[in-house]
Amino acid sequence: MDSDEGSELYASDIEHSYATNIVKEVETDGLIDSYKPSFDAYFTHASSRTRTSTNVFSQRVVPLSPEEYNAALARAPAHAFAPKIPFDSSSFKRWAHELDEGFNLLFYGLGSKRGILNDFAKHVSRRGHVAVVNAFHPSMTVRDMLASIARVPGVQSTSTSTLTLERVAEYFAGSDSPHLFLIVHSLDRSPKLTRAISSLALSPHIHIAASIDRLNAPLLFSASQLAARKSSSFSSDRATKNVGYGWLWHDLTTLEPYTSELTFADRTSISGASSSRARADATNPTSGPLTETAAMHVLAAVTAKAKKLFSLLAAKQLENAESSDVSEVTPAHSPNDQQHLGLTYDALFTLARDAFIATNDTALRALLGEFRDHGLVVSAAQPGTSASEVLWIPLRRERLSKLVGTLDGDGT
User: Fold this and answer.
1) Greater model confidence, 330 or 395
2) Which of 162, 187, 182, 186 is nearest to 172 (CA)?
3) Which residues contact 132 (CB under 8 A, 6 or more apart)?
4) Strand partners, 132
5) Any idea what DSSP says for residue 64?
6) Most buried pick, 139, 372, 374, 397, via CB within 10 A?
7) Whether the predicted model's global pTM rises above the 0.85 cut
8) Which range has highest mean pLDDT (80-89, 264-273, 278-287, 390-399)?
9) Percent helix / strand / coil, the chain, rounded to 5
10) 3-state secondary structure of 92
């Protein structure tokens, strides 16, 4: 018995001595001490300081300007925006069936999903009422979403009553209530809308199909909200407790550019209006100057605040035209180049804020975006400055005056 224990100790001593010799040999040869025991290697590496790079990605990579973004999209080949597996519209039936089973759908993946979800909205429009929410729009609020839902007959009891999330959830919880399909684009862009939708998602006859664009979007949902499911026991007195989402996740990678979603991303998108229109005129010879008829068609489709902003900018441009004393169009000032009569962005923001049209930069940017897409308002950098920009309406003074008179006659 003693001899066995002695042999074990003897073997252990030899093993320890052999490992020590290996380490010494490696150290004397100037090689990496990779033959050290695991515990020695751990303390050796743990004692060394970790070097953190000071290079920040957002500081070293300059964001694309609107001109660079549009030029990159124009140069890209068509197959760059085509996924390896093309989308099959037959998935609409499966998605609709999943909605019927009590799930809500959340779509993720690289590329804009707006076009496909809009087509899905048309597919389910035969089964009930549809409301589309553009959460990427900075001026989109919970009140706007409720206003869209209020168009469903029977949701709002009286024209003067205020519609609430609880009232909507209660109405669509009834067994005889119609079905509401809520299509939400870029849900992760608006945390307020995300929280509001959690009060509607578990109502039995409300079906939600939403998209997310950011990698950290799942952090918006708690574990309990993700695990929540619709139940037939939804009661009106427990409407406020029925909070959750019941998501069923789908990969919807399209590789489509986020053109619509990035329209209101930042203030620099305004400066791309004039250059974008100039490229369109250069590539399309049939596109002529802005006409009164085209302007009236666009103004008839925008909100009242947008019309007031347009009238405000037009009035200031007419005042500048009067003070400049330039009544005839000269080669230096063509009908489509009224920059010398325009208004700086900061001056327009001050006037819009005083008139209660836009109280912050984001709201003004959203209103200007309505006109930028159609070329009613264009912009350019102010001469002699690097940051300020000038906004103007590309119409001659007499045409602009007639257009303003028409807007005033309509009560705007």
Assistant:
1) 395
2) 182
3) 118, 121, 148, 183, 185
4) 183
5) P
6) 372
7) no
8) 390-399
9) 50, 10, 40
10) helix
